[in-house]
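Contributing new complexes? Match this layout with manganese (II) ion.
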Amino acid sequence: MSYIFPPPNQTALPVRGTQDLFPVHRVYCVGRNYAAHAIEMGHDPNKEAPFFFQKNPDNILLDGEDFPYPGMSSDVHHEIEMVVALKSGGDNIRAEKALDCVFGYGVALDMTRRDLQAEMKKQGRPWEIGKAFEKSAPCSELVPANDIGHPVEGEVWLKINDEIRQQGDLNQLIWKIPEMIAYLSALFTLQPGDLILTGTPAGVGPVQRGDRLHGHVAGVGELKVNVV
Ligand code: MN
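Output block (do not edit by hand):
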């Protein structure tokens, strides 16, 4: 037996300071996980359980590559987020054991066709067309937890053309990383290679062609992407 065409290349992220690659399995994203962002999107952060959506592994764009402004939208937004990378998984993982599954951390952008997402929300339809499009998940190299530990605080910001647009702190996450892993593992079988984008602080807004995006998570890393 042989494949009728070559199987797709494995999406992989570099690991800082090594020649190693982290092979990506799934990309989970948590919605509205900072109170100030929930409020700016018109929601009450106190009334809502967290929720998840997915991007496709091959939507990942590597640090330093260009982000091509996608079609079918005139309102593409930036959402800067810390990403958690899993080296192991399972079902019904207890929060107290969840950090054992974490390989490391990185910096990601959850690029969003906000106009399409808003239309889908209004119609009660899935968000894929707003969230899971080509190159919609720029992601930095990963840094192993063995090197930096498990960050629970630290500034998160995004600059566009050297101006601060988003700013927050990991200590503002409504659902903490062990809770997210535990919650997700009750819904899905988590696997080595899974990524979790942990939500964005306030200040989301549109990008334009020509913009230089620079994301930062203190103690974790940097991500630089140009919009073309
Ligand atoms: Mn997001």
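Reviewers usually confirm one structural detail per submission. For this one: The first strand starts at residue 12 and ends at 14.
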